[in-house]
Amino acid sequence: MSSSVSTDRVAMASRSPGPALVFAMALSCGLAVANIYYNQPMLAVMAQDFPGQSAIPLIAMLTQLGYAAGLLLLVPLGDVVERRWLILGQFVLIALASTMAAMATGATMLMLASVLLGIGATAAQQIVPVAATLADPARRGAVVGSVMSGLLGGILLSRTLAGLVTAYGSWRAMFWCGVPLALLGGLLMARMIPLGLPRSTLSYPRLLASLIGLWREEPALRRATLTQALLFASFSAFWTVLAFYLADPAYGLGAEVAGLFGVIGVAGVVAAPLAGRMADRRGARSVVLVSALLVVLAWILFETWLSLVGLALGVILLDLGVQSALVAHQQLIYGLRAEARGRINTLFMTGMFLGGTLGSSLAMLAWQQGGWVDVGWAGLALALTACLAALAGKRSLQPAS
């Protein structure tokens, strides 16, 4: 590694993320990642505006595919360029894509905007490694957990906001709201993220090529990625079909109710810093195992307690389990190689969101074939497989040194 990187590390040793910076990073993470989830409670309404266009249910999947593409192609750049300017550029992309979605005249334009929104939203995954880099190693889990609470809040409250705006305005109004919110996140990060963070000296092509070596050389990363991908597939399966389920004649509820379930899942936001601190003390493995079991229990509730109360309790367990496992896994992987955190995050989050894409696709197929019951069996199977993966990783998921 070059002396310039060493010098950067020395300079960073004198810095630590204060409360204002941690809050700004958490808020900006939430503002970025929210763009992946605005569409979920709006899908049924959007389908009504574009009758006969069967591609509308694919929008959630396409947004996640865009996110996976951004993780693979843009997040590694954070290891070689100034993250401050990269993050700002991605927020500008979000603002432009939101404008495109709001003005969409057909499903094709809306689908393209959704892919671009997913790509831009990976700004959140540029911010989280910054938090890990700035944090003292002994507190890395707690700091990352605090920043992740903002990201998780964005995931959950985005659905609530989108549901309410759609119910009392329109789905286009929600995308218009996304424009100033994205610009706010970009301005915050452009002003507050320090320059001179540790960077790799590899060229971009070699940086991408090095992903293969990292994946091969880090078994803990592989295990964490597989387990989290399965958990997130289960998570995405639920949220992809919830709006359709609630709109079914059995409930006859609209987008605003689907969105309000995001507020119920706020337990995941509260749990994120706690999960980080627990992973700091006891290691990631115990947190991941308990978290995966909570997701299994959530799907058992969804399958056996067919009421709004059962849904609400299941949402709490689902979000608590998936988000706690995510923070624990990040505490683990960010302790592997400091100079490769961007690339490690790329591999981990790409795998996770490919899992989300799988979960969304599987859920729509199950919904079309057998309704909510089949969706429940699919979600439960994914959660149980995640439990098995976590157990099989007994030797991999050890506390980060």
Can you walk me through this structure?
Helix 4 crosses helix 16 (about 340-390). The chain is an all-alpha fold and about 400 residues long. It is built from 16 helices and no strands. It has helices at about 5-15, 20-35, 45-50, 60-75, 85-100, 105-120, 125-135, 140-170, 170-190, 205-215, 220-245, 255-265, 265-280, 285-305, 310-335, 340-390. Helix content is about 80%, strand content about 0%. This is MFS transporter. InterPro entries: MFS (IPR011701), MFS_dom (IPR020846), MFS_trans_sf (IPR036259). It holds the Pfam family MFS_1.
Q: Strand portion, in percent?
A: under 5%
CATH class: Mainly Alpha
Average pLDDT taken over every residue:
83
Number of strands: 0
User: Major sheet, described briefly?
Assistant: none
**Distance linking N and C termini:** 21 Å
What is the name of the CATH architecture? Up-down Bundle
Quaternary organisation = single chain
Shape estimate: globular
Q: Uncertain regions: pLDDT < 50 for 5+ in a row? A: 1-14
Report Rg.
Answer: 20 Å
Counting helices, strands and paired strands, the structural category is mainly alpha
Overall tally of domains: 1
At the fourth level of CATH, the homologous superfamily is MFS general substrate transporter like domains
Number of helices: 16
CATH fold-level name: Growth Hormone, Chain: A
**Helicity range:** over 70%
Protein name: MFS transporter
Keywords: Membrane, Transmembrane, Transmembrane helix
GO molecular function, one term: transmembrane transporter activity
Transmembrane segments: 20-38, 58-78, 85-104, 110-135, 142-161, 173-190, 229-247, 253-274, 286-302, 308-327, 347-369, 375-393
